[in-house]
Amino acid sequence: SAVISQKPSRDICQRGTSLTIQCQVDSQVTMMFWYRQQPGQSLTLIATANQGSEATYESGFVIDKFPISRPNLTFSTLTVSNMSPEDSSIYLCSCDRDGGYTFGSGTRLTVV
Amino acid sequence: GENVEQHPSTLSVQEGDSAVIKCTYSDSASNYFPWYKQELGKGPQLIIDIRSNVGEKKDQRIAVTLNKTAKHFSLHITETQPEDSAVYFCAASRADAGKSTFGDGTTLTVKP
Fold this sequence. Notes:
With 112 residues, chain A is mainly beta.
């Protein structure tokens, strides 16, 4: 399966600012996925990112709040915009390689 | 859309005993069922998966069973060890859709 490098691993941000999270995959993958995991809870899909097209967002998530870039088949970024304390969560990227889903190690975001 | 229910939410076993976690899904089109282990501060790690054309799959102390008719699948861990303590998530997806729907997680504690 693929290896994903995700950064930053954690950050503390002021409300109203934005944070961009990066994921680098060690091989080319068609689809990448961005998830949010609130403390003690399960994973919720934010959006699916395909190279060369706009990301597909799940219900409850919008592009203005969570813009995503997918410039090539090994890289993607998720930006959390105009942050509020409710955005404090763990954000994870994932991809499917050879039939197995791999996750990055996550970005633990705290908004103060 | 897909809905995945996972039980129990917490499970405590004695070292050496077996642990079983069960999940049900709603979308009969789902055909890929992975299980993830998430340790504190880390991203989910794929530990075993099963596809809908198979009824059971085993990998050393871990096994997964799938009942397509009843739409449920289970994770079995035998001879549990303290290092098996973690949160376990089941998921369901359609291989052509890529994205997964996750269960709420089971916190497994193995007591030495």
